[in-house]
Amino acid sequence: MRYALLGDIHSSVEDLKDVLNDIQKYAPDAELIGTGDLFECIISKKRAPFERFSRLEDVMLFSDELIGMLTFPSVRGNQEERIAQITESDEPLLQRIRMMEERIGIGKTAIVIHGHQWEWGGDPWMPVFPETGPDLIFYGHSHDSGLSINNQVEEVGFGVPYDVTKGRTFVNVGAVVGDRNWVLYDSDAGTAIFKKVMD
């Protein structure tokens, strides 16, 4: 089974169009899974604890075109959590956001999570990976494509199949917004390929 993993869209319609076209070109059979932050919340983290809104249009960027392209399941990111926290409405889109799961299992052993749940720090900015859990985790949040196997950071090249069965593996799929990156995961072959839309 092949999976196309994409996330950190932040409501960018044009970047999402390019990535979806790229997926259709290279992996039309792949099941799409989102890594969160599909939407851009326009209320800052500092304001969020003190304000509440009754309309999604006052809280986030979205359009009918964007919603029409978001036909795939996705974990919730920190943007979705903030949107849900500060909006009090019965709008169907808000209910959809509230229903997004924290984790989605793919294949027999892998999971998808946004990654904001972990502690982050250092230079380069990296998460402190959990010591327990599945051996293969796909995530996003930092917008940087990355690969870590058994606590060793690997250099990432686009279009190269990486063996993700060699140990505890964390794959940052990168960002759709700005970078137009995604990852093709083949659960049968045990490989992940970092992809980038080329102009």
Automatic annotation (TrEMBL):
Residues 1-180 form the Calcineurin-like phosphoesterase domain. SUPFAM superfamilies: Metallo-dependent phosphatases. InterPro entries: Calcineurin-like_PHP_lpxH, Metallo-depent_PP-like. It comes from the Bacteria. Pfam families: Metallophos_2. Belongs to the metallophosphoesterase superfamily. YfcE family. This is Metallophosphoesterase family protein. It comes from Bhargavaea changchunensis. The lineage of its organism: Bacteria, Bacillati, Bacillota, Bacilli, Bacillales.
